[in-house]
Design brief:
The complex is a heterodimer of chains A (about 300) and B (about 240). Chain A is α/β, with parallel strands linked by helices and about 300 residues long. Chain A is about 35% helix and about 30% strand. In chain A, helix 3 crosses helix 4. The radius of gyration of chain A is 24 Å and the shape is elongated. The two termini of chain A are about 35 Å apart. In chain B, about 80% of the residues lie in helices and about 0% in strands. The model of chain B has no long low-confidence stretch (mean pLDDT about 90). The chains are: A alpha/beta (about 300), B mainly alpha (about 240). At the A-B interface, helix 2 and helix 3 of A face helix 1 and helix 6 of B.
Chain lengths: ~300, ~240
């Protein structure tokens, strides 16, 4: 159960949508695939699903090449495209039976499998409705069920949570989390909290190039300096603090607000509080600036 | 695997009112031509012969068949479900064949009621049974084959675009060209080239089947036209 993207390059006329992109996800990993719109996420996923051909490079699913043996790969992966295409005239169960048939599931095993997926995706009460009548959240569940019906090892979800309301968001997210427990999952999204909640590993792509690729905890772990923000009622002067041993850099945000960078936030906080007392300042707040995925994402993809 | 897609296509056709509407219009048009309009009516003609049916059905087919096939690929591309099919274990060939056979099934279903016309004429003939059965069945098989060619044309034109109406117009145009256009072109001159063009036209081979003789060259012609069109469809939907 693995997904391996190797030196993937794709051109649309003169524009390079993907430029030698490589990354991989192992079994049981949920890989968050991030990037601004038009960065090449969907293109990568479409190539993985066998819908598009790359100009160079390859994607291996469990070691099978999607370029050479797309039909073998199609049985190994479950794919939910970005706009979640469904036959709106079909009934939910009819549609899932149809998909099971396309994937060559037959007889009782097909029936059981469809039933299990319907239950798992919470579609029980809706299974005899037409897909066209369902709300967006339920359509998304049908799309997920479609991707899961043949019990694939690798699951590719292209922005599965866009356009959902906050309740549906949580439901779908939990569903994805549960699916991800024993499958390899590639998930693209714009929502950073989602990545922080679900993913083990993060790949950030920008203009067809990978700009970051690491385990989530490494990526958000403090790299170098972290920032403290000090706010008081009185105006602050940089010179009051410049002699502190733990301080590395200092920036003025406002008259009464400073940003102080350090390697050791605990030590610097102690030193700062000492100065506040010494100068008899009234402290409004002293907080550590969280280095979250969102700031990293914006740093890497803003140009 | 293909079977599911075949059934889905047939269901999709009969799940909408347009499907029934198309077949109804088709059968009413033929019924009027064969039994009611005095100029073409068998009853006024005086001979136990269904020539009118076989002369006019291709005209109606030119419109009917593209209307059946127009959504088959174009609509799926537009709604994105094409991605769902292409990324399934079905090969492109299987997708094309499943859709093509579904269109054939619908066309055949549309033609089936005209067998009642045959039965009626057999009974109405004086003496009873006085009808050129070989001619009828030759023509009937010819009609099925013409429907099959138009089906391939329709599927091909559906693969050219993601707009159903465009697919319909292209399908009608190509059908017209192949059936009427080429023989009209051939009639402009009287030389070897004209003869050669004539032999490429659908109507030439259709008429020769109407004589009750099904010879292999006609069959080869129909099957190869269908093969070329389906192969062209395959080229159009290749992975890019």
């Amino acid at each position: 159960m693995s997904l391996e993207v190797k030196q993937l390059t794709k051109r649309y006329r003169h524009q390079k949508a993907l430029d030698a992109v490589s990354f991989e996800a192992q079994s049981g990993q949920v890989l968050g695939f991030l990037g601004p719109n038009g960065a090449g996420k969907s293109t990568t996923m479409k190539i993985a699903s066998g819908y598009l051909l790359p100009d160079e490079g390859d994607i291996l699913i469990n070691g099978v090449s999607v370029v050479e043996r797309p039909k073998e790969v199609s049985k190994l992966i479950g794919y939910l495209p970005e706009h979640n295409p469904l036959y709106l005239d079909m009934y939910v169960k009819e549609f899932l039976d149809f998909v099971a048939g396309l994937y060559d599931l037959k007889g009782k095993s097909a029936k059981d499998q469809v039933k299990a997926i319907v239950d798992r995706c919470g579609l029980g009460p809706e299974q005899h409705k037409k897909i066209g009548q369902l709300s967006k959240g339920y359509r998304q569940r049908v799309g997920l069920a479609k991707a899961l019906v043949h019990d694939p090892d690798v699951i590719i979800l292209d922005e599965p949570t866009t356009g959902l309301d906050p309740n549906q968001l949580v439901e779908i997210r939990n569903l994805i989390k549960e699916i991800g427990r024993n499958k390899t999952l590639l998930l693209s999204t714009h929502i950073m909290q989602e990545v922080e909640a679900i993913c083990d590993k993060v790949v950030i792509i920008h203009r067809g190039n990978i700009v970051a690729q690491d385990l989530l905890q490494n990526l958000t772990a403090d790299q170098g300096l972290s920032a403290l923000v000090l706010e008081t009622e009185e105006p602050l002067k940089q010179s009051w603090f410049s002699a502190l041993p733990a301080l590395r850099q200092i920036h003025t945000i406002k008259d009464n607000e400073l940003e102080l960078l350090t390697e050791d936030t605990v030590q610097l906080r102690r030193e700062l509080l000492a100065i506040v007392q010494e100068r008899n300042l009234s402290l409004l707040s002293l907080k550590k600036k969280e280095k979250n995925l969102e700031t990293i994402f914006r740093q890497l993809t803003q140009t | 695997m293909m079977w599911q897609l075949f059934l889905k296509e047939i269901n999709a056709f009969f799940n909408q009112l347009t499907g029934y509407l198309l077949l109804t219009v088709f059968l009413i048009a033929l019924g009027l031509v064969v039994w009611v309009f005095p100029e073409t009516s068998v009853l006024d003609y005086g001979f136990a012969d269904l020539e009118a049916l076989f002369v006019y059905t291709p005209f109606v087919f030119v419109f009917l068949v593209p209307a059946i096939t127009m959504r088959m690929i174009a609509e799926e591309k537009k709604s994105g479900t094409w991605e769902l099919l292409v990324t399934s274990p079905l090969t492109n060939t299987q997708i094309i064949l499943a859709k093509y056979f579904a269109s054939l099934a619908v066309i055949f279903l549309a033609l089936l009621p005209t067998l009642i016309y045959y039965y009626s004429i057999v009974k109405l003939g004086d003496p009873v049974g006085n009808i050129d059965s070989a001619g009828f069945f030759g023509s009937f098989i010819g009609l099925v084959l013409i429907g099959a060619v138009f089906g391939a044309i329709g599927l091909f034109s559906s693969s050219l675009t993601d707009n159903q109406i465009t697919a319909f117009v292209i399908g009608v145009f190509l059908g017209f060209l192949l059936y009427f256009g080429l023989s009209a072109l051939a009639s402009l001159q009287r030389n070897n080239l004209a003869l050669w063009i004539e032999e490429l036209s659908l109507s030439y081979h259709y008429q020769s089947m109407g004589r009750g003789v099904i010879n292999s060259s006609n069959l080869v012609y129909f099957l190869s036209v269908i093969g070329v069109l389906l192969a062209a469809t395959g080229v159009m939907i290749r992975r890019k």
